[in-house]
Amino acid sequence: MQLTLNAIKYCPMTAPRRHISPAAPADGAQPRGGGPGAGQGAGTPGAAEAGGAEAGAAEAGAAEAGAAEAGAANEAGPPPAGTPGIAAAPPARRRRLPPHAYFLVSAIFHYLGPALAVLLFAQIAPLGVAWLRIVSAAVVFALWRGPARLWRRWRGSPARIRRLLLAFGIVLAAMNACFYLAIARVPLATVGAMEFLGPVVLAAVGVRTRRNAAAFGLAVAGVALLSEVQISGQAAGLAFSLANCGLFTLYIVLGHRIAADGGGTGIDRLATAMIIATVAITPAGIAAAATAFTRPLLLGAGYGVGVCSSVIPYVTDQLAMARLPRAAFALLMSLLPASATVIGVIVLHQLPRPPEIVGIALVAAGVALRAEPAG
C-alpha cells in the first residue's frame, strides 16, 4: 500500500514596502504638504523635482531588494519547522501493512492450528480439543480487550448487534466442532477444500452470471470427486465435512457484518462472540477435555492450538475483511485449499492421491473464478 505525503506549498512573503521619507527641506523651507501655505514656500520647482526623483529612486531600490529577498527565499526552500508565521509540516504517517498481508497470515494459521490439533487427537478426543481451542481463544481475547470494555460494548450495542453476536458465537462453536470431527476422519486438505463449496454457491445465488455458473460447476465437480474418494472409506467424515461447509459459509456472511464498523470494533465483537462460543460448546466438549486438566503439557498444547487456530487467523481475518472489498477477499480465499494441502503434507505427512489433487484444484479454481458484488 503506497502512502503519499502531502507536499507543503511554501509561498515566500514579499518584503514589505519601505516608507521613504522625503529629503529634509532646505533651511527655512517647509516640508512638502505640511503647514499652512505649503505650496507657497516649498523652494524652487527644480529642487522639488529633484527631491521627487530621489524618492522615486529610493522606492525602486526597495522594490529590487524585496524581489532579491523573495528569490533567495525561493532558492532556499521552505523555512524550518517552528518559524513564526509558517505552519509546520504535518508528521509523516506510519506505514501500515497491506490488507493482503493480513490474509496471508490468516491463510497459514487457518490450517496450521488444526494440523497441530490432529496431533493431539491421540490424547484428547476431537470435541475436547475443540473446547480447549475455543476456551483458550476466549481467555486471550478477554485479557487483551478487557472484560469491562467488552461488557460496555455489549450493553451499548443495539438489539440487532446482540442477535448478530449470539448467532456468530453459536456458528463458531458448531463450525469448530464439525471441523475437528471431520479432520479426525478425513485428510485436512480434503476438508479444507470441501468447505468452500458453500461460499461458491452463495456467490452464484447472489450474482447470477455465466462466470459464477462456471465457478459453481467447477466447485461442485471438485467436491463430487473428493466425496467419491472419501465416501467409500469414511461416510461420517464426509457428513461432518459438508456440515462444516455450511457453517463456514455462515461464518463468512456474519464475519463481514461483524467487521463492518472497522478493525477495533470488529475485534471487540469477535472477542464477545468467542465468549459466547465457549458457553455454546461447553456442554459437548468439557468432559472430553477433562483429560488435559491434570496434564500441564497437554493443557499448554491445547492453549497453543487455540492461539494458532482462533486468535491469529480470526483477528487477521477481521483486519483483512475491514480493509478489502468483499470480492477481493473472496478471490484470495482460493488460496486456502492450497494452504491446507501444503500444511497437511508438511505437518501431518498426508500426501493427497491424484484424484484428491484434481478435486482440490477444481475447488480452488471455482473459488478464484466466482464473482461477488464489490464492497
Task: Give me the secondary-structure topology.
Elements: H1 45-76, H2 99-120, H3 126-145, H4 147-156, H5 159-183, H6 188-194, H7 197-206, H8 210-231, H9 235-258, H10 263-289, H11 296-323, H12 326-332, H13 335-348, H14 354-369
What does this structure look like?
- The structure is a single chain.
- With 375 residues, this protein is mostly helical.
- The protein has one domain (99-369).
- Helix content is 70%, strand content 0%.
- It is built from 14 helices and no strands.
- It has helices at residues 45-76, 99-120, 126-145, 147-156, 159-183, 188-194, 197-206, 210-231, 235-258, 263-289, 296-323, 326-332, 335-348, 354-369.
- Helix 3 (126-145) packs antiparallel against helix 5 (159-183).
- The longest helix has 32 residues, at 45-76.
- It is globular, with a radius of gyration of 37 Å.
How would you summarize what this structure contains?
This protein is mostly helical and 375 residues long.
N-to-C SSE string, H for helix and E for strand:
HHHHHHHHHHHHHH
Determine the strand fraction and express it as a percent band: under 5%
- Main pleated sheet: none
Number of domains: 1
Shape: globular
Helical fraction equals over 70%
**Unreliable residue stretches:** 1-57, 68-90
Q: What is the distance, rounded to the nearest whole angstrom, between the alpha carbons of the first and last residues?
A: 18 Å
Strand elements, count = 0
